[in-house]
Write a structure and sequence with these properties.
about 130 residues, alpha+beta, 3 helices
């Protein structure tokens, strides 16, 4: 069973330091699913048009994650291919699973049941 996770986003505070994060995984989900789980993204954050929309997330265990549309030619509102970033320390699955678990919690049932099964099988929250 998935349990609730505590987190904050850039919408809650401007003090989430994501400097030095890098790609840890990807996710296939809608912009609307991400907005439902994490609120509105920041737009045009990279200054070089490589990122049009981005979320910064800090979980209660200290895990930092970013979700962003790296070099996408699609408008963020129509995009379904998102990158998940985090710090190199620790298990790369931690960032991805934390994000997937929250999307699953906020958007049950998910459009992609394979992704949901991955959360249920690999998440430390599942039992």
């Amino acid at each position: 069973m998935l349990m609730s996770m505590q987190y904050r986003t850039h919408n809650d505070t401007k003090n989430i330091d994501v400097t030095g994060t890098s790609l840890r995984g990807t996710i296939d989900c809608s912009f609307d699913q991400l907005v439902k789980a994490f609120g509105m993204p920041m737009f045009d954050t990279s200054g070089d048009e490589k990122v049009k929309a981005e979320w910064h997330i800090e979980f209660d265990d200290g895990t930092i994650a970013t979700i962003y549309d790296w070099k996408s030619l699609i408008d963020p509102e129509k995009n379904t291919d998102w990158h998940i970033g985090g710090f190199a320390k620790g298990n790369p699955k931690d960032n991805v699973l934390s994000v997937l678990a929250l999307i699953a919690l906020d958007n049950m049932p998910m459009d992609n049941d394979t992704t949901l099964r991955a959360v249920l099988e690999f998440s430390p929250l599942a039992h």
